[in-house]
Each structure stands twice: as structure tokens, then as C-alpha cells.
């Protein structure tokens, strides 16, 4: 489940941005500077929550924080998808960055507590591969959705990614244990 959390947080919510950006940029009339600003907002949200996410997980338990983080990702993805201009898209990407760090960091660190030192490297490497799995899935999926749904393909991509992330949030709450 920790691997799937990383898959959702990084692969779906964060790394898919580059594949969606060209059609989103054209539809919203964003400049290159604004497109870069969206990426900066995502990374800034990730950085800020990276500083807090571990503390939250230690106080509230990783299960709750991971689930909440994935739900924040869902809100960020949906807001990005319904955006009609730069400011709401910027807020959506900032929220996605917050949620990504809030779920990814505790998911990658909690497994270190579950396994002996001898197996910890294998387990953390396996969990971390969720990000690569996300790229493998979204790499062909997002361009297909963008092409299949015409001018609203970029929006549909964000909605599908939000739905997948929501499913992972529900599953993480049901399966993960502190």
C-alpha cells in the first residue's frame, strides 16, 4: 500500500503535470512564465509540507496524515482541472504539492519502522519505485486522454488522476496501520 501511496502522490498528482501542460497552457492561454509558475507552486507546496509532514505523521499517525495528504492532492487535482485562469490553477498546483509531501514522505519513512535493518533497503527501494510506476502509467495514459477528449482532454486527465488518487486515499485509510 505504501508503494501505491507513492504512486498516487508522485506519479499521478505531481509527475503527470508535464504531460498535461502543453494542452492546458494552450487552453488557458498561459505564458511560459505562468506555466513555470505552476510548477514552482507545486514544488513550493512540496517543500513547505516536507518540513511539516513528518512532524504531523509523528503526532497524528502516518495513516491519517497519508490519507489526508492524498485527499489534499485530490482537491488540488480537481481545482487544477476546473481552472479557468492562472490563479485557480496556481492554487490547485500548490495544494497538490502540499498533499504530495504530506502523503509521500510518511509513506516512505513508515516502512523503515516495520522491517529489520537488514530488509529496510529493499523495502524502501520498493516503496520508492511507486513514483516510477506512476510515470510508466501516466506516460501513455495522459497523452491518450488529451487526444481522445479534444479541447477538454487536459481537464479530463486531471479528473481521472483525481479519481485514481481518491481511490488510493480510501484504500490507504482501510489498509495502512500506524
What does this structure look like?
There is one protein chain. The protein has 178 residues and is an all-alpha fold. The protein contains 7 helices and no strands. The longest helix is centred in the last third of the chain and has 32 residues, at 117-148. The protein is globular. The mean pLDDT is 94.
Keywords for this entry:
178 residues; mainly alpha; globular
Strand content: under 5%
Please work out how many helical segments DSSP would assign.
7
Order of helices and strands: HHHHHHH
The N- to C-terminal Cα distance equals 13 Å
Shape: globular
| Poorly predicted parts | none
Largest sheet: none
Helix/strand/pairing category: mainly alpha
Helical proportion, percent range: over 70%
Over the alpha carbons, how many angstroms does the gyration radius reach?
16 Å
Q: How many DSSP-defined strands? A: 0
Average pLDDT taken over every residue: 94
Give a short summary of the structure.
By secondary structure, the protein is an all-alpha fold. The protein is built from seven helices and no strands.
Please outline the helices and strands:
Blueprint: H1 2-12, H2 17-28, H3 32-60, H4 62-82, H5 86-114, H6 117-148, H7 153-175
Amino acid at each position: 500500500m505504501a508503494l501505491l501511496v507513492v504512486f498516487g502522490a508522485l506519479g499521478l498528482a505531481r509527475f503527470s503535470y508535464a504531460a498535461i501542460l502543453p494542452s492546458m497552457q494552450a487552453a488557458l492561454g498561459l505564458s511560459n512564465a505562468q506555466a513555470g509558475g505552476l510548477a514552482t507552486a507545486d514544488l513550493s507546496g512540496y517543500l513547505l509540507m516536507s518540513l511539516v509532514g513528518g512532524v504531523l505523521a509523528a503526532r497524528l499517525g502516518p495513516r491519517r496524515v497519508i490519507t489526508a495528504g492524498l485527499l489534499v492532492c485530490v482537491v488540488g487535482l480537481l481545482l487544477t482541472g476546473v481552472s479557468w485562469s492562472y490563479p485557480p490553477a496556481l492554487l490547485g498546483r500548490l495544494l497538490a504539492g502540499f498533499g504530495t509531501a504530506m502523503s509521500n514522505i510518511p509513506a516512505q519513512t513508515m516502512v523503515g519502522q516495520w522491517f529489520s535493518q537488514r530488509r529496510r533497503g529493499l523495502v524502501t527501494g520498493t516503496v520508492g519505485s511507486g513514483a516510477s510506476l506512476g510515470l510508466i502509467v501516466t506516460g501513455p495514459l495522459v497523452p491518450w486522454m488529451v487526444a481522445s477528449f479534444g479541447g477538454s482532454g487536459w481537464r479530463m486527465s486531471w479528473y481521472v488522476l483525481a479519481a485514481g488518487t481518491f481511490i488510493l486515499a480510501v484504500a490507504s485509510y482501510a489498509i495502512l496501520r500506524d
